[in-house]
Amino acid sequence: MRTKHGVGQVVVVVAVCLSAFAADPGTKEFKFTVGPHASVSIINQYGPVSVKPSSDNQVIVTATAHSDKVQVENSQSGDRIVLKSRLLAGATPANGRVDYEVLVPADASVSLHSFDGPLHAEQVSGDVTLEGDTATMDVRDVAGGHVHVNTLNGPVTLTNVSNGHIEITSVGGDVTMNSVTGPFVEVTCAKGKINYDGDFGYAGNYKLTSHTGDIVATVPADASFDVNARSVRGDVQNDFPLRARQQIAALPQRGRSFVGSAGRAASSVILRTFSGKIRLKAR
Predict the structure, then answer these.
(1) What range defines the domain where residue 100 resides?
(2) Domain count, the chain
(3) Which residue ranges of the chain lie beneath pLDDT 70?
(4) Each residue of 162-187: pLDDT tens digit?
(5) What's this model's pTM, rounded to 2 decimal places?
(6) Beta-strand (E) ranges in 5-134?
(7) 146/281 same-domain check
């Protein structure tokens, strides 16, 4: 009798566990207490992810599943939080969608992944990583840390990003940067356009490269930078009266490149494209 009773208890426990992990559409909230510099990762095949700062040491995730064809899995290992949308049989981009709204401590690092997004992060000082295919990607009002963005065809916008190490890689998505400065800013596009509107900061290294896309950089008339711009087949335009460098490996080709310094040449700027146009505009 004891043996049968024990087996019965095990069967009941297993049934309860399976029920707890069953897919359930609707909105769920997950809360995690973390220490300084926590890491939060959201992996979502379909649907938006938005990250904003919380007022304490908690990570609060509100996840809304659009059907029972997707479920949200979550785990915590110390100060590392992972949430993942798991598609079930019969899932489609429509019914497999989950909407995430995430609050994290301001010093947390976040990693967001979505096929179609959009992905949004703001007012955090930790590292920010965004990855997607067609997802719109938006990072704003962040300071310090690393910002890494990888996309196939989604547009990328960075706004008010200061003192950051920034790396953006895009195949066909356009990249727009407004008031973006840092010791290292590198954007690499295959077909996408690059639009920079800022001041190139101070003592930074900026490299903007696109194979076929245009590059437009708009900076104040009193900006301080050293520039080397070249388009193999496209036209170039420059609004600044640049001072010639003392040492130049090769003379710039008229209409295809320009090289020189403005102000105190505080930052280094490299602009490169194969067939796109380059325009350095004075605001």
Answers:
(1) 23-117
(2) 2
(3) 1-24, 245-255
(4) 998 999 999 999 999 999 999 999 99
(5) 0.87
(6) 26-33, 39-44, 49-53, 58-65, 70-77, 80-87, 98-104, 109-114, 119-122, 128-132
(7) yes
